[in-house]
Amino acid sequence: AEVKKIAVIAGDGIGPEVVNEAIKVLKRVEELYGYRFEFEHGLFGGIAIDEKGTPLPDETLQMCRSADAVLLGAVGGPKWDNNPKELRPETGLLGIRKELGLFSNLRPAVVFDCLIEASTLKREVLEGTDLIVVRELTGGIYFGDKFRREGPGGEEAVDTSVYSVMEVERIVRQAFEIARKRRKKLASVDKANVLETSRLWRETVNRIAPEYPDVELEHILVDNCAMQLLRRPASFDVIVTENMFGDILSDEAAMLTGSIGMLASASLGEGSFGLYEPVHGSAPDIAGKGIANPLATILSAAMMLRYTFNYADAADSIEKAVQDVLNAGHRTADIAVDSSKAISTEQMGSLVAEHM
Amino acid sequence: AEVKKIAVIAGDGIGPEVVNEAIKVLKRVEELYGYRFEFEHGLFGGIAIDEKGTPLPDETLQMCRSADAVLLGAVGGPKWDNNPKELRPETGLLGIRKELGLFSNLRPAVVFDCLIEASTLKREVLEGTDLIVVRELTGGIYFGDKFRREGPGGEEAVDTSVYSVMEVERIVRQAFEIARKRRKKLASVDKANVLETSRLWRETVNRIAPEYPDVELEHILVDNCAMQLLRRPASFDVIVTENMFGDILSDEAAMLTGSIGMLASASLGEGSFGLYEPVHGSAPDIAGKGIANPLATILSAAMMLRYTFNYADAADSIEKAVQDVLNAGHRTADIAVDSSKAISTEQMGSLVAEHM
Ligand SMILES: CC(C)[C@H](C(=O)O)[C@@H](O)C(=O)O
Ligand SMILES: CC(C)[C@H](C(=O)O)[C@@H](O)C(=O)O
């Protein structure tokens, strides 16, 4: 088989540990399915600040550009939190999204039945929850002009949110396509009663909708969506929204499931290229101890196989192995009921590889 | 006693019904405590659009300006949803906030123990939840420049978010004062890792904080706050944030409690003037049926007595009466377990008045 190049940027905190287990599982995919991967490693985030003086070194960016997909661990930590903007890990994250044109962030929030008790929501409300937030990732208030100026009320700060029809069209079309392959329901989230960008968003959604008559479309205001996610999470299928709202709602949706250590994400651009990373952060408090949960990163690798490489067989096999390992009662400390029985990061990775 | 002028803008849907019961309770306050109120009624929202061609007629605004406080029912409904911007009820709401200088929106989210089962959250997570969101209400992306323009990606829409030091200072100071009268914990919510307005916000909070050494301050990113509200709602006391984040988080917090029909709000400016309204909407589907829950509006009237008039005795008495009526098992349809036993809007108002 053709060799696929995977750029690995393990990052900070538990990043390297969890990424190692995802690589272990990808190597098992090579053995079982005959696919071929080549891994290249680069510096990114806090460690890149320390070693190269910038969170996103040029060589890392070049490495990602020449790869077929990127596997990211996690970035950040208290060490860099008070750095000036250019020397903060988040700046690298925003930079890599923009530079690689990753305009779409897919954030599935799935409830694992055997972990449902970990949620703060009641079982009967949560049961059957399987939604995906499609967040626009390179526009809006994240990337518009930002500055300070003098005003009548003293110093003022300004942020600008901009969306073009083109930017809305491409993310909305992608969301419709994803809905078509799922339960055929799309909720478009905006604040059209207040924002001009939201009115453009809603007009664009309505213009595209007739191309997808098989998908049931609902417009929902962002404040109401924050409520409905709590009230009827299982009723959502695909949620599409702009960058800032998506940041908030995708994290709310993740927390609903109770298993944030289990959630994967994909950031996609045009074509099949994508960056894959766990939803959880770098967890500096447990870094280096070998106890982090690698499943979110392993499931991110499965998303890579599915979305970038089109290896659905291998992706299915990983996802099923994760289920089987959980059903067999294996738990890392973060999801263990009895922490004395918790297994290590490495053990969890090996168990998934064995169950494939 | 001095006569206090209350401007009543009942609005649309169930607005008039629930406002009537709040007035009934305020009249009972006059009898019991010797306070004196004068009620003046004005058109606002959809009904004002129908009758006057604008959601916020000048005479309504004048009436509010010459009053000591405003009692608002609810505005909006499907009838006006597709109107152009100037003819939409929300435009009246944004207009009245700006015109009356109501820069602070207080949104308590309290769990009523006897209604705790109505929440989708587990009892043990929710127990003891008693937080208040202090939302900035006249700045940020709601009121900054909004426009369309041509760009390289076709038509573009632009929204601008602006905050001055003065705007942040006054709301943050108010939040610190409120925290001081409660459990002395303040969470300031921003997105300082991305937004310039948030960086100004955080700097300003940090500059003011030493004036309140007795209040424990926490900075929390908006995406994380959306998660922590779900994970540990009872740990929050006062949450202060900018307009757009406050819109989303205050509704999320409201829904947590499971009793959105019970939640009151106050919008305050400089001095003691305030506008008081229930958190729930106009509920057009049940309007005119006499079955709406008036408790949120009654509790909003209690907030008016507390914050604008400083009649803590009467406010306490209303709040206690509401508790007693609920503890005695009386329920309107929205909170009834057995809907055949539900009482009417009027009955609920009378019961509260009797229990005072
Ligand atoms: C770290 C931060 C800039 C980032 C964002 O807001 O996009 C993070 O919260 C995320 O969601 O990936
Ligand atoms: C109707 C709308 C403009 C308003 C807002 O976003 O402020 C509402 O959601 C609220 O919270 O009072």
From TrEMBL, chains A, B:
Location within or outside the cell: Cytoplasm
A biological-process GO annotation: L-leucine biosynthetic process
Record-linked Pfam families: Iso_dh (PF00180)
Gene Ontology molecular function terms on file: 3-isopropylmalate dehydrogenase activity; magnesium ion binding; NAD binding
Primary localization class, coarse: cytoplasm
Record-listed substrate binding positions: R97, R107, R135, D223
EC number: 1.1.1.85
Co-factor(s): Mn(2+); Mg(2+)
Record's catalysed reaction(s): (2R,3S)-3-isopropylmalate + NAD(+) = 4-methyl-2-oxopentanoate + CO2 + NADH
Residues covered by the Isopropylmalate dehydrogenase-like domain: 5-352
Site (Important for catalysis): Y142, K191
Pathway: Amino-acid biosynthesis; L-leucine biosynthesis; L-leucine from 3-methyl-2-oxobutanoate: step 3/4
Keywords: Amino-acid biosynthesis, Branched-chain amino acid biosynthesis, Cytoplasm, Leucine biosynthesis, Magnesium, Manganese, Metal-binding, NAD, Oxidoreductase
Details of cofactor binding: Binds 1 Mg(2+) or Mn(2+) ion per subunit.
Role description: Catalyzes the oxidation of 3-carboxy-2-hydroxy-4-methylpentanoate (3-isopropylmalate) to 3-carboxy-4-methyl-2-oxopentanoate. The product decarboxylates to 4-methyl-2 oxopentanoate.
Family: Belongs to the isocitrate and isopropylmalate dehydrogenases family. LeuB type 1 subfamily.
NCBIfam families: leuB
UniProt subunit comment: Homodimer.
Protein name as it appears in the record: 3-isopropylmalate dehydrogenase
Organism this protein belongs to: Insulibacter thermoxylanivorax
